[in-house]
Amino acid sequence: MSPLPIPRCLRAWWPPVKPDLAITYQPQVHFFADEGLPLVRVGTLINSPLNTVIALDKQIKTRQICKARRWATRSAALSRPPWRPWRNMRGSIRPASKLVNVNFQLTSALLAGQVDAVIGGYRNIEAQELKLQGKTPVVMNVEDYGVPAYDELVIVAHRDAIHEAKIRKFLTALQAGVGYLRAHPQKSWEAFAAAHPELRTELNHQAWLQTVPLFATDPAALDKARYETYEQFLYNNKLVKKVTPLTNYAVELH
Predict the structure, then answer these.
(1) Which of 141, 151, 123 is nearest to 210 (CA)?
(2) Could you tell me which residue ranges the SsuA/THI5-like domain spans (predicted)?
């Protein structure tokens, strides 16, 4: 499943389709709560941010003097967290900078010299792609530039269903699967590539190896302080209307 934006996520729980679970981003969970949607985080897949700013010019890597004038972004990336607060930080992006929407062609735009930096590239995908092209990318992680750490991918359920036994069983099975994946990254890659030969590329291989250590070892575990800190961060940056209590949008099912 792909992470779901709000409209699709809402439709997913309307008849005739009623999934038990969906995958989204932690920042989206806070927006769901702010809008009063009955969706609750019950588990975590990736418990580290993946978003970055990537450049090829090493002089760009400075919080005080950012020399990039042309930035590549995909869709409305800068209108959503974590980019909007990061964009407004002193020295991050010049007021006269130009934002270029290149959809998912971030690395192509950077390699072609169409932009000075890309915003919204993933450290396990675009950064690896540039390395395979023989480049040494400058990778700036958002959590190093004022954005609190957050869970990249989380699992949500309808509030009325969070205590159903099948969800706990799923999380238990997921934990076992992640344990095997982390213990056997190369073996699991070979099994995946054999089942999907069209995806057997060096980029996917490197992305797989970079992503495996980022899977949550205990998917059910909830870092309460992390979620509350991020909620306050969104409120301080006027991205949510109110501070929603943690129990309204996240639970730990053990």
Answers:
(1) 123
(2) 18-187
